Amino acid sequence: MANAKTTVSITAPYDRATELKAFDQKKCGVQGLVDAGIRHVPRIFINSPDTIPKTSTHFELPVIDLGSTDRASTVEKIRVASENMGFFQVVSHGIPLKVMSETLEGVRKFHEQDVEMKERFYTRDTSKTVVYNSNFNLYTSSAANWRDTFFTFMAPSPPLLEELPEVCRDIQIEYSNQVMKLGGLLFSLISETLGLKPSYLGDIDCDKGLVFAGHCYPACPQPNLTMGATKHSDDGFLTVLLQDEIGGLQMLHQDQWVDVQPTPGALVINIGDLLQMISNDKLKSVEHRVLANEKGPRVSVACFFTTSLAPSTKVYGPIKELISDDNPPRYRETTVHDYAHHAYSKGAKGVDGGRRFLHLKL
Which of 79, 219, 223, 239 is 20 to 30 A from residue 296's alpha carbon, by CA? Predict the structure, then answer.
């Protein structure tokens, strides 16, 4: 009987646009639904069954010690991971465990505070200093994700202290500053993996923009019906992910979904679309997703190295030092702004679920 009801809930006609608008206007997000005691996933969140397979295979994501004195070995490990998997984890990264735990706690407090406090930041205007909402692509996706997010551009022009949410402003600033330092090191090492001078990617401003995104995946009463985040790749240069112990992140590796298990004290690093593009496909931006879970809330912080939708005229294309007669450029040039605008307009996925940067292919 339960299965029959589920089938009806997916296939029965309904005014989706009206329900999306009603959810959005409440400004309470998914967490608000959970706080209200909801026991069934609303139809706007229900995915087609074939889009949410839960199977995965065991996989050990490389853990790279950035404190190693053998820089050549570190560069080689990053090269192998970036070319073959697009994901790796780092330890001895310089960010204190206390800062990491307080950052997760700050994000948790933001999402669990009273709706009246959060709704001041609720908006779909990405020009705002703090953007809090549920599903940036709520009105364009085929099914909403079981996730709420707030994000802020922390660099190159950080916001004023009073513009940030009081409940987490101090730790948000501290963590962002720490990630910027880490980014400088990572881009230096990745430059070397490409056979370039250590300062190359920094010199072309890959490490100058930072977006801080605090995600909350509330406990889901029917995790088999929805996703925490549907499959997507990240549109920036590089992503630094801090996740709690609950897990649920999966990456696509050799056409199979594999779990990215939380490692205490480690940060997850993944290559973004723009870094794959300027490396002329040498580095891989890999699709990933987050499963919905009966446990929760799962909290994570994704820091994206990108200037995203900020106005820019700087043009990026395949790095000339990596181009040759045997390895011609594979992409047209673009600005970060134009690519981010394209990616944002397509939602988490590209056209028909494809990769979003394929429109740049030569």
Answer: 239
Q: Residue 105 belongs to what domain range?
A: 2-360
Q: What ranges make up the beta strands (E) of the chain?
A: 63-65, 87-91, 130-133, 148-155, 210-217, 227-232, 238-243, 249-253, 256-259, 267-271, 288-291, 298-305, 315-316, 334-335
Look up residue 236 and give its two tokens: 């920036």
Quote the radius of gyration of the chain (alpha carbons, Å): 20
Distances (CA, A) of 348 to 5, 79, 233: 29, 27, 8
CB 301 within 8 A of CB 224: no
- Domain tally, the chain: 1
- DSSP state, residue 347: T
pLDDT along the chain (362 residues), means of 10: 43 82 96 96 90 73 97 98 98 98 98 94 94 95 96 95 97 98 98 98 97 98 95 95 95 92 96 97 96 95 91 92 96 92 66 61 88
Residue 191 belongs to domain with CATH number: 2.60.120.330
